[in-house]
Amino acid sequence: MTPPFRRVLIANRGEIAIRIIRACHELGIEAVAVYSEVDRDAPHVRAADRAEPIGPAAPAASYLSVDAVLAAAARSGAEAVHPGYGFLSENAAFARAVTAAGFVFVGPPAETMERLGDKLAARQTAVDAGVPVTPGLMVSTDQAAPADVEAIGFPMMVKAAAGGGGRGMRRVDRAEDLADALHLARHEALAAFGDGTLYVERLVVGARHVEVQVLGDQHGTLAILGERDCSIQRRHQKLVEEAPAPGLAPETREALAADTRRVARAVPFHNAATVEFLVDADQRHWFGEMNTRLQVEHGVTELVTGVDLVAWQLRVAAGERLAPEVTEAAVRGHAIQARIYAEDPWHGFSPATGRIGAWEMPAGPGIRIDSGSEADLDLPTEYDPLLAKLLVHAPDRDAAVARLRRALDETVIGGVPTTLGFHRWLVDQPPFVAGRYDTTLVADLWGDGPPLTDADRSLAASAVAAAAAHLAPPPSGSLADASAGSDLAAGRAWARLGREEAVER
Known about the structure:
Blueprint lengths: L6 E4 L3 H13 L3 E7 L6 H5 L2 E6 L10 H11 L3 E3 L9 H9 L3 E2 L4 H8 L1 H10 L7 E4 L16 E5 L9 E3 L5 H16 L4 E5 L5 E9 L5 E13 L2 E7 L6 H16 L5 E9 L5 E7 L6 H8 L3 H9 L6 H4 L6 E8 L1 E2 L5 E2 L2 E2 L3 E2 L6 E5 L6 E2 L6 E9 L2 H14 L1 E2 L6 H7 L3 H5 L6 H6 L7 H15 L10 H4 L3 H11 L9
Parallel strand pairs: 1-2, 1-4, 2-3, 4-5
Antiparallel strand pairs: 6-9, 7-8, 7-9, 10-11, 10-13, 11-12, 12-15, 13-14, 15-22, 16-17, 18-21, 19-23, 20-22
Helix pairs in contact: 4-5, 5-6, 16-18
């Protein structure tokens, strides 16, 4: 097969940059990485065929700088630019600038981003297409609370109009809290996306977050590739996703797919996107938004359909038609993804920094790891704290949950607090095991996390003692060898719980 492009620049970092690099290499494409000063020696830089510097660590001066990214593309001789997710991936001005500079933008057209990136316009597009929406309105950057905002009803959700990933979002239950919520959300949105425009909408309490993957070519063909449940969230940001969504009635699944097709047909769409819905306990659904990019959780769809979404993004951008393997893809088995973050779930999922110590990922049948991290890596404070995505695939959901439980037991990350302890707790919770949960599960059941047991305290004491003794790991770094020293073994067991490993590396 002739490669879709000769050389592609990846305007991103971390695990998604590595994921795109791998797809490029399988298609015979040279991959060009970009890096800020703090990422000079990062794994994604080493994985690429060549790399271009784009500026200081601050995202605004590097990964969010259109001029810096386009200059890097020009220096590298790239033919196309893949934005990944986050940063500039849903920035219509960037998509236009890429095209104007003579490169191919690997993503939906800028016009589609403009219509669907503006949440008010997106909702109107959905209404015009006959898709149900919840009440809401836009709040401009320099605007206080509009006079008619309370007509939406409480509780309501304030969202950043220009982005996602949980940034710039605030729940508001009372009118007197709205002004502060708007101020805080606007500040966070400006920092993350460079745009303080907000959207306020009615909050559907106890709803599930279900999204549908759509892929389209430049010849009018659309492929609906099933749905994902993304309801396990903290601070409105996803922690676990699975495909297919458990417990959906067949008619609900069909309605979500049909409404996704209606929204995609209402705009000049091609490439990859996701349409998000809220689904309540009675399986009524409402359009939330359309993300005109690849999603963090795209891997679970790849596992159940066998479709390489990143490869097809590149092929569609080069003008190829979707093949029957895409348009006729069927969902097989069940996949679950756990996002492992450098966060302390026992302290409000607060981001953590430091140097990664032990780093041991699980293996075996049905296991996939997408990561841009490794042992002895210093974690930059400027970027998202995602360390790895642990994905499992099995013939059915029960088997997938069991496989995830086993994989988490094998995973060891030391040196920084992580969400491993939360994930290991989650896979034993009855609502999750039964597949009957909604977006309130973490807030209702986790709280500040389960208290430490006597065994946990013993592990902590042993790990601290190991640090005091300046123990080093065995040469092979294997768990078997680690057991030879009880203090070091305790440190590794502590790392399995997601607490900071006290053993010096």
